[in-house]
Amino acid sequence: MPKWSSGRNNTPLEVVTEGRPSATRCGFVALIGAPNAGKSTLLNCLVGQKLAIVTPKAQTTRSRLLGIAIEGPAQIIFVDTPGIFAPRRRLDRAMVAAAWSGAEDADEVVLLVDAARGIDRHTRHVLDRLAKSGRRATLALNKIDLVARESLLGLAGLLSREGQFDPVFMISGLTGDGVQDMKGHLAAVLPSGPWLFPEDQLSDAPQRMIAAEVTREQVFLQLHDELPYASTVETERWEERPDGSVRIEQVIYVQRTGQRAIVLGEGGQRIKAIGARARAKLEHMLDRRVHLFLFVKVRQGWADDRERFKALGLEYDI
Ligand SMILES: Nc1nc2c(ncn2[C@@H]2O[C@H](COP(=O)(O)OP(=O)(O)OP(=O)(O)O)[C@@H](O)[C@H]2O)c(=O)[nH]1
Ligand SMILES: [Mg+2]
């Protein structure tokens, strides 16, 4: 195990291995791409723990989430971002703005392209904007487990002609194939500097927010059509119990009374199923008993409501 010594004043923290100091590295790496490209799956794979929610539906992620990984002397702060698409609602605009500002603030940008889907209109839009900004990015052709090698090479060729990608990795965030190679590369190119987070910290997100995301994941998985997009989840109370368990109260906001009825389901069956899955996941995550109480409230136009944006960690004035 390396020993850690902190330098004086502004000297970076140094890792001392066998008496020879080597400077630490630290930086932000933004994962950007079209909705559903696999950014959140990759973040979880890179960190080695499930932090970000993942569903087969597009536009699952709504705000930036940090996932922190250590690779040798480097602390890599990965930034999961919402998918980039043509926004319409204020909420959508805020999601896309969060994605771009995640990229602008980062030391390195990784563009994920779903290799099975190729260059769709969303990826086209991201490519054009990246080209305009003149920003170099690492390209990750993702979901290679779904694609034949020849078509991968064709796609890599097409994208390389866009000019600003160096290097190109072929990965699967689901199976982990190629991910370690890419992580090693990113660790090596980050700037020298002290680590920004304690060694054992995996994310910047408060537990209450991750807990709300766990329930939102079930809303996305168990409800369909417009409902996942018409819903948001907030943790209202978090109470540690003397017996070591935790009581969590959450509100699922929907936009119309009819939607509330669907979330509840006949005889409350749907909300019960959402609560049961979310509770099981939370118990696994927190490693203790969880008492989860879900309430469904109608708040017309919550997707234009400053308070709801604050809870999501998004800017309202966009
Ligand atoms: N086969 C395969 N599926 C993947 C891979 N990575 C992600 N997926 C699947 O793709 C779907 C979308 O994954 P997410 O990680 O939620 O994608 P995202 O880019 O974060 O999506 P948004 O948050 O909506 O922008 C899920 O069903 C994942 O299981 C991969 O490498 N291989
Ligand atoms: Mg996501």
Question: Mind describing the biggest β-sheet?
Answer: 6 strands, mixed
Mean pLDDT: 92
Low-confidence stretches: 1-17
Roughly what fraction of the amino acids lie in strands?
A: 25-35%
- Our Rg estimate from Cα atoms comes to 21 Å
In DSSP terms (H or I, runs of 4 or more residues), the helix count works out at: 9
Concise synopsis of the structure shown:
This protein has about 325 residues and is α/β, with parallel strands linked by helices. It contains nine helices and twelve strands.
Layout of helices and strands:
Elements (H helix, E strand, L loop, with lengths): L2 E3 L8 E4 L2 E4 L1 E9 L5 H9 L17 E7 L2 E7 L9 H16 L2 E7 L6 H13 L3 E6 L6 H12 L4 E6 L8 H11 L17 H16 L9 E9 L5 E9 L2 H8 L4 H18 L3 E9 L7 H7 L6
Parallel strand pairs: 4-6, 4-7, 7-8, 8-9, 11-12
Antiparallel strand pairs: 1-2, 2-3, 5-6, 10-11
The chain binds guanosine-5'-triphosphate and magnesium ion.
Structure description:
This protein is α/β, with parallel strands linked by helices and 318 residues long. It is built from 9 helices and 12 strands. It has a 6-stranded mixed β-sheet, with helices on both faces. A 3-stranded antiparallel β-sheet has the order 1-2-3, with no helix packed on it. A 3-stranded mixed β-sheet has the order 10-11-12. The longest helix has 18 residues, at 269-286. The N and C termini lie far apart (47 Å). The model is unreliable at 1-17 (pLDDT under 50). Residues 39-40, 52, 60-61, 80 line the site of magnesium ion.
